[in-house]
What we know:
Elements: H1 5-18, E1 32-37, H2 51-67, E2 71-73, E3 77-78, H3 83-92, H4 96-112, E4 124-125, H5 129-143, E5 145-148, E6 153-156, H6 164-169, H7 171-179, E7 184-194, E8 199-201, E9 220-229, H8 235-242, H9 249-259, E10 262-271, E11 277-282, E12 293-296, H10 303-306, H11 312-324, H12 327-331, E13 340-348, E14 353-359, E15 371-374, H13 380-389, E16 397-398, H14 405-409, E17 420-421, H15 438-452, E18 455-460, E19 466-467, E20 480-483, E21 488-490, H16 520-523, E22 524-526, E23 532-535, H17 543-546, H18 549-552, H19 565-571, E24 576-580, H20 586-600, E25 613-616, E26 619-625, E27 631-632, E28 637-640, E29 643-646, E30 652-659, H21 670-677, H22 679-688, E31 696-698, H23 700-717, E32 723-724, H24 730-748, H25 752-769, E33 772-773, H26 774-784, H27 789-798, H28 815-818, E34 822-829, E35 832-840, H29 845-854, H30 856-862, E36 867-873, E37 877-882
Parallel strand pairs: 1-2, 1-24, 3-4, 12-14, 24-25, 26-31, 32-33, 34-37
Antiparallel strand pairs: 5-6, 7-8, 7-9, 9-19, 10-11, 10-13, 10-18, 12-15, 13-14, 16-17, 20-21, 20-23, 22-23, 26-27, 26-30, 28-29, 29-30, 34-35, 36-37
Helix pairs in contact: 1-27, 3-4, 8-9, 21-22, 22-23, 23-25, 24-25, 24-26, 26-27
The protein binds one RNA strand through helix 9, strand 11, strand 15, helix 13 and helix 23.
Amino acid sequence: xxxxxxxxxxxxxxxxxxxxxxxxxxxxxxxxxxxxxxxxxxxxxxxxxxxxxxxxxxxxxxxxxxxxxxxxxxxxxxxxxxxxxxxxxxxxxxxxxxxxxxxxxxxxxxxxxxxxxxxxxxxxxxxxxxxxxxxxxxxxxxxxxxxxxxxxxxxxxxxxxxxxxxxxxxxxxxxxxxxxxxxxxxxxxxxxxxxxxxxxxxxxxxxxxxxxxxxxxxxxxxxxxxxxxxxxxxxxxxxxxxxxxxxxxxxxxxxxxxxxxxxxxxxxxxxxxxxxxxxxxxxxxxxxxxxxxxxxxxxxxxxxxxxxxxxxxxxxxxxxxxxxxxxxxxxxxxxxxxxxxxxxxxxxxxxxxxxxxxxxxxxxxxxxxxxxxxxxxxxxxxxxxxxxxxxxxxxxxxxxxxxxxxxxxxxxxxxxxxxxxxxxxxxxxxxxxxxxxxxxxxxxxxxxxxxxxxxxxxxxxxxxxxxxxxxxxxxxxxxxxxxxxxxxxxxxxxxxxxxxxxxxxxxxxxxxxxxxxxxxxxxxxxxxxxxxxxxxxxxxxxxxxxxxxxxxxxxxxxxxxxxxxxxxxxxxxxxxxxxxxxxxxxxxxxxxxxxxxxxxxxxxxxxxxxxxxxxxxxxxxxxxxxxxxxxxxxxxxxxxxxxxxxxxxxxxxxxxxxxxxxxxxxxxxxxxxxxxxxxxxxxxxxxxxxxxxxxxxxxxxxxxxxxxxxxxxxxxxxxxxxxxxxxxxxxxxxxxxxxxxxxxxxxxxxxxxxxxxxxxxxxxxxxxxxxxxxxxxxxxxxxxxxxxxxxxxxxxxxxxxxxxxxxxxxxxxxxxxxxxxxxxxxxxxxxxxxxxxxxxxxxxxxxxxxxxxxxxxxxxxxxxxxxxxxxxxxxxxxxxxxx
RNA sequence: GCCCGGGUGGCGGAAUUGGUAGACGCGCUGGAUUCAAAAUCCAGUUCUGGCAACAGAGUGCGGGUUCGAUUCCCGCCCCGGGUACCA
Length: 883
């Protein structure tokens, strides 16, 4: 009986498809389980073996949960807007929709060949007008929502209270006021611009070295009219929500860092000879006594007022210079700090001392107030700056028993941890914190500031407004019209979706406009009064479609609404969401933001979308490196006796592990693996490689290993002569139930590698025994089914069943079979295991002691030694302390 | 620099969370089968010494706690990811 996977697998894939085996019914009486994969961008290259890693894991869990009686929602779709299809259109004139369609068809074919149990009737595609109609609809909700900070909740814009004085100013002022509150707004924004892609990018899409994440080109700053979303309003909610989620701590930490909450105080400083106050934000108001200078950002609006006549030239020169610098230059840590004295002094409110005001670009306009008080003794950046410009450094926090304390007290070393205040009291102002520690100092100083009305406790966040438009064709059009009189209106719901016009040319406008400006007929609109308007030519970023797709799977064909309310209440939240960690902050933060807005508006029933998140690790591949460190393409590598050589130069190469890449020619295509070993082997190997969340290299030899397991299992379990109608052998029965238990536990904990190992161990035993009862064989087929569903269905049919086993009950563990009467104890002397001794588990400790002492092997280890102590842990170990 | 992960045989990785380190798989060695090979089956395989029984060493490094540490604590080193003048 040969394991003929090329026959078995298409047979069952056809069966599942024809019988709609995995169609999900909205049966509200059953317990639900919503298990979601991050949907792919359908690239022209097709799947690589990294995709099926997460997909297989969720498929195993889905199949298992079905057998456990759950109603499982397990859908797939495509995040299909994106630049590659548009770039291809520019080169060839092929409509992006055509390219996208083709790529999706290929992805679907590849995914189906893996035997994944998706409900294909729920497939969605973000570029489908029936889908993006609702993306546009959500945009309208964002536009028509404001955030009530008091209630910490998004509310309809119609409920926004407008102050009397604004109403008095008239309609224009009211509209302006309202637009300042909308979660989506249109404004001039300093944005990142990629000259090669001819589009703006969100902060998050710019890498730390200033390169565009998508293309690697260096981005520049540009001022453009853009759509932005006020995600920072939801900072606190986004932070709070994390606590209740079952997510990897690393991802939660990354989101927390990204939101970047900090608490401190705003403090107002009088400026000498000027009727202006300089407001700073500090997290360390307690160190005010140590403030020896102040810094304002070069773009600060008070710079011109503060700078004195004789410093004017130098400051202006500095402002110009830093305006020209890219953000990369400004944030490059390697460089030295720069700055210029303004010539003017501020008054430190805690002791009325004048301190110089400097302009320096290490202070950023976009955070806090764009101005700081500098405490060089207790802040490393200020310390560096003060050293450079010979500004006094006054230590006000005694670190006490710390190495280098003298240096710190002398102001030669920076100290930013806790301590006891010194030099921190003023009779004149009444603030005295000497002797207190950091926490007490902060509290007392803030109270003092507030009582004098010169400062207040404040919270700041790093999170910025989300730049939500792109100068692209292949994205969702904004349902927005800009009228000639300046009014902005949204397209009526009944006129959604607003579809993309056909274009002849996909090249973007030079001035930074999207290709949509070329579609004149689409672009220009006239209302019933003859007023002319122009449609928004920007389109939404790719994040838009992926922000809410998990909601559409719930009711994908609904034409009347975004989804049915009852269905949403039944299926949400997503119970398990599996995907790559590269979406840790972007997609997952954006999604959570939209979801919370929809929740506040009463559209969805849960505050958070994804209850449990799991990140699969990246699949890497072997690559080869020459002696000089250069990488060698895999097709030029020859293996001889476990060593690797360059096919042309003959030089020995080192095997390394690297990301799969076209240039290294080490990309593995699942199609090839399936052709050679079958889908069940592909699935098994994806899971057997190692823990799901770890990065690990693909090794074809490993695929062979799991293939051997399936082939061995097939030869045994598909052979009638091995399957007998008898009561089961005791050893097999016991191991079978241990295996059920192990597999079940491991699936629940997403430890698929060890569950497969357990199945192998069982397989090895029955083959050794030579025969097995029919009942056992059927049970084995069931527990194998989530992992290798094709071959499991084949066994099931072979044992005479007419229906799929996809909905058979998961076998129960017979606990009675697992009870052990004896245990083989490792007997150790001083912690070193010396021999094994089997003892009944019901033996009392003194009896056990006697039994071990009576053992002749014990005597050997006791020669000339005394027993000091005997440690016995029933069911675990026996250890004798001798000496 | 800071925040997360992670370092275990020739390789991928196990270890019920303090109790026999190396499950399972790959590779390798020997044997069976075969004219031969592939496939398959059986045995062995952490390292060092020994024919063997056995002995010693061993989970990145150095300390510590413990009868007992891959697991807990302290101090380092290396690799991966994130972040970066956020006051």
